[in-house]
């Protein structure tokens, strides 16, 4: 048996937060903990999450001072986690918790240290949206692969799963949505056994609340260079995890 921590970064997600939490408990009947990190929401996200937590002991809420970005929220969640396996779950229902059992299986079986959910492998369902997002993601993934020498199909995926020791030992210092690129470079430097698993994807439009934008894409290119070329393995981790 392995213990599972789910980290849910959330910013102004009052319309979906309760549905995400219900879906997580359905997909994982016995998670060790579900940690919602409220990134300074100005709506009722925190109140709804805390209300849910009063009825479910596995659920707890951390609140950041002000809107610090997804990476800061994840960093706080990782530091608070205790599970053997740590899962990132977005709060917006773009990613389906029913995929989690398949995502954790390579780690549970002892084959993987890190698992990325891929929206571009064979999948159950995927909403068709912005071509320029697809093109940017594929280009960024290609650029990252050139430097990591790992053949990812989707580094910008929101579904990432880690052995707890690895993610809690990692130094994370990027901002906003830089986590996706930073963590990819650092697991490559560590020599982790990395798997990809196909997932469903129910993307949102900007009108529905999507938050990533053009400048985040430019920042991601900068982070690809920074963490692959100018960050050593020793500096990437507080302590070197055992593989």
* Topology order in helix (H) and strand (E) letters: EHEHEHEHEHEHHEHH
Number of helices: 9
Helix content: 40-55%
CATH topology: Spore Coat Polysaccharide Biosynthesis Protein SpsA, Chain A
What is the CATH class designation?
A: Alpha Beta
Judging by the overall fold, what is the CATH architecture? Alpha-Beta Complex
Total E-strand runs: 7
Number of domains: 1
Give me the Rg, rounded: 17 Å
Q: Which spans have pLDDT < 50 for at least 5 consecutive residues?
A: none
Please state the overall shape, judged from the principal axes of the Cα atoms: globular
What summary fits the major beta sheet?
A: 7 strands, mixed
**What proportion strand?**
5-15%
By CATH, the superfamily comes out as Spore Coat Polysaccharide Biosynthesis Protein SpsA, Chain A
Distance between the termini: 19 Å
Descriptive terms for the model:
243 residues; alpha/beta; Spore Coat Polysaccharide Biosynthesis Protein SpsA, Chain A; 7-stranded mixed sheet; 9 helices; 7 strands; 40% helix; globular
Give the topology:
Elements: E1 4-10, H1 17-27, E2 33-38, H2 45-55, E3 59-63, H3 70-80, E4 85-88, H4 100-108, E5 114-118, H5 131-148, E6 160-163, H6 164-169, H7 179-190, E7 194-198, H8 214-229, H9 233-236
Parallel strand pairs: 1-2, 1-4, 2-3, 5-7
Antiparallel strand pairs: 4-6, 5-6
